[in-house]
């Protein structure tokens, strides 16, 4: 059981009310303040719940926004990387084509030279 808020009232008031009256008045004050305290606690708890709900809602909205921004940033980065990769592959293909052309030219030149050399060897 909680300790009463008012255990004693001023002596002059006690003399004026008498022993029963002062006890009844003290009980009345204790009950009134206890009820008031319950109301304040209940009100504060309701305000806390409401504020907590608002904060949670704001946090969720903020998280959704951040996630959407991250998704967009990720998609943009992926598109840039895809474009860069296509460019790099195109450059590699061009380099391969050049190297292939040079190799084919050297192979053909070697074949022509060897044909000439074999023709000379056969004539000797």
Which descriptors apply to this entry?
124 residues; mainly alpha; 1 helix; DUF1640 domain-containing protein; transmembrane; membrane
Produce a short descriptive summary.
The protein is built from one helix and no strands. By secondary structure, the chain is mainly alpha-helical.
Which percent bin holds the helix content? over 70%
The SSE string, one letter per element, is: H
Number of domains: 1
* Percentage of residues in DSSP E strands: under 5%
Number of helices: 1
Low-confidence stretches: none
Task: Count every beta strand, where a strand is a DSSP E run of 2 or more residues.
Answer: 0
Description:
- The mean pLDDT is 90.
- The chain has one helix and no strands.
- With 124 residues, the protein is mainly alpha-helical.
- The chain is 91% helix and 0% strand.
- The N and C termini lie far apart (130 Å).
- The protein has one domain.
What does the secondary structure layout of this molecule look like, with pairings?
Layout: H1 11-123
């Amino acid at each position: 059981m909680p300790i009463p808020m008012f255990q004693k009232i001023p002596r002059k008031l006690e003399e004026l009310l008498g022993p029963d009256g002062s006890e009844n008045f003290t009980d009345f004050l204790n009950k009134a303040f206890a009820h008031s305290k319950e109301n304040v606690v209940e009100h504060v708890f309701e305000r806390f719940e409401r504020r907590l709900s608002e904060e949670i809602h704001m946090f969720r909205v903020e998280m959704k926004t951040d996630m959407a921004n991250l998704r967009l940033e990720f998609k943009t980065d992926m598109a840039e990387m895809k474009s860069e990769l296509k460019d790099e592959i195109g450059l590699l293909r061009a380099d391969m084509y050049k190297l292939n052309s040079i190799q084919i030219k050297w192979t053909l030149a070697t074949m022509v030279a060897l044909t000439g050399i074999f023709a000379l060897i056969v004539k000797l």
